[in-house]
Amino acid sequence: MSHPYDSLPPDAFWRTAVADRSAFDIKGLWRPKWAIGRKEPIVTTGSCFAQHFGRALAARGYAWLDAQPGPRGLDDSQRRDFHYGTFSFRTGNIYTPRMLRQWLDWAFADRMPDEVWEKAGRFFDPFRPGIEPGGFVTLEELCASQTETLAAIRAAIAQASVFVFTLGLTESWQGPEGVEYAICPGTVAGRFDPAQHRFLNHGYAGLMADMEGALSTLFRHNPGVRVLLTVSPVPLTATASGAHVLVATSQSKALLRAVAGALADDPRIDYFPSYEIITAPPFRGMFFAPNQRSIAEAGVAFVMEQFFSVLGRAPAAPRAPAPEPKPAEPPAAEPDSATDLRCEEEILNAFAQPR
Fold this sequence. Notes:
Elements: H1 14-19, E1 42-46, H2 50-59, H3 76-81, H4 97-109, E2 117-119, E3 122-124, H5 139-159, E4 162-167, E5 171-174, E6 198-201, H6 204-221, E7 226-231, H7 245-263, E8 269-271, H8 274-279, H9 297-311
Parallel strand pairs: 1-4, 4-7, 7-8
Antiparallel strand pairs: 2-3, 5-6
């Protein structure tokens, strides 16, 4: 008597798809829903690992959209330090769905909260405290920078054919009225006030609501955009949840992966498995650096190889062609080190107590 498993292909079974193969011979992890043409404007943002996507797209001649390229005269190192060319706009890392929703809401309202952090006479943006090393000299300079970034977000979304977002964290620190910071107040600048600031570890319902809210704004302002979601494979630097950081990482990534998978049921949304490629058992942790957290250069290269090798065989996109953009200037070469990223979360390592 036949049953549904009689006709399944080899990649539906662990033995034939995984166990009987070399890790580097595992195929079909991603089946793109649609093609991404080299001339289609692509926006990238999200957690630290998202920085690799922008760099790889630009280096391979895709039209990665840099809507806020920054002033002339900065060398490559200075551009990275000041978060120019890191993502498609100068928001710094957007770790959580709530942060993405905030930035899109602020961009289309053309207004951000008035809160400012101070340290040693300098001013810091609580929502992207790492973008200006040493802080802003004046409040006017900080506000002008915010205005530029909000305009860059609007311009990027208006042009985007594809919007790539990498989900990174569920843990967050919030201020009055639920506004979410990029990092805990008092770590980079500002002052932690237990009466004003609270820790929140988002659950599935909250994560989904925030992603749906962000996507609703995105589709409202660009009905033809397609969204590619990924989940960062990078473990948490630290956790304020009370759990062991390894357990907290598993919970965080599982929730983000579940949200991304559910959203990808929408034909406008796809999911690329960078998280699985790095962390799955067949790869035995080989792509992690010695600290067991950073992704080694070989791991980033392998992820990007999987992405681009399959992308060329994707079906045509179900939309009218977008206007041809002015592509970002590609870097001279991709970074030598996969850990050469700019991530606010890394600052938390400084607070680790010796054993």
